[in-house]
Amino acid sequence: MSTATRTTTLPLTGAYDLREVALMGFGHRDESAFDGVMRLAFCTDALDSQVGVEVRQQDDALALTVHGEGDLDAIAAQVARVVSADHDGDAWAAVCAADPVLARVHEAAPGFRPSNFYSPYEAAVWAVLSARRARRQAIALRRRLSEQHGRVFALARRPEAALPLPEQLLGLEGFPGLPADRIPRLHAIARA
Q1: Non-local CB neighbours of 124 within 8 Å, separated by 6+ positions
Q2: What topology is assigned to 5-108 in CATH?
Q3: Which residues pair with 51 in a beta bridge?
Q4: Which of 42, 60, 94, 95 is most buried by its number of CB atoms within 10 A?
């Protein structure tokens, strides 16, 4: 299958450090090193395709290289939300300056903004996969599930796998390491 590759940029306001965002360690993300590229692979908000995105910071903008199909503006908006580049960073700095606790945190990492789930669908799947297991085990389980039933992209010379789309998840009858009682829960998420 051929994959479309397109580029776009997201303008930034206020202090922003992609490295801080990439190394946050949130949900299934557990990077321990940063080579200048944040690699994202996910189901689009429309839940009709999977994309891979290479995110690079270039001064006051994020440069996106998008692999896969789908509306480029919608994908860019989803990435902006995921990496907290969708709001005015100057306003965030003002909020931090007005609160003594946030001011200390912001001073220690002035370009930090939180990383978020790709979508409510991805958050719900993560909740099922990660329940009652160590985070590292859940990360490995999600990676295997995504590699075997989702879509794998080569992003800046590294593989990154997107979760299965809902229709792909509905075809799942069992999966090594996933208790059988979790399958109906994943199917319910896929139908929602």
Answers
A1: 189, 192
A2: TATA-Binding Protein (3.30.310)
A3: 42
A4: 42
HEC secondary structure over the chain: CCCCEEEEEEECCCCCCHHHHHCCCCCCCCCCCCCCCEEEEEECCCCCCEEEEEEEEECCEEEEEEECCCCHHHHHHHHHHHCCCCCCHHHHHHHHHHCHHHHHHHHHCCCCCCCCCCCHHHHHHHHHHHCCCCHHHHHHHHHHHHHHHCEEEEECCEEEEECCCHHHHHCCCCECCECCCHHHHHHHHHHC
Sign of CA dihedral 36, 42, 45, 46: positive
Phi, then psi, of 66 in degrees rounded to 5: -105, 125
Residues 136-159 pLDDT 10s: 999 999 999 999 999 999 999 999
Tell me the two tokens of residue 37: 């590229």
Closest CA to 114 of 37, 21, 13: 21
Residue 150 — φ and ψ, nearest 5°?
Answer: -105, -135
Is the full-model pTM beyond 0.90? yes
Domain range annotation of the chain: 5-108, 120-149+165-191
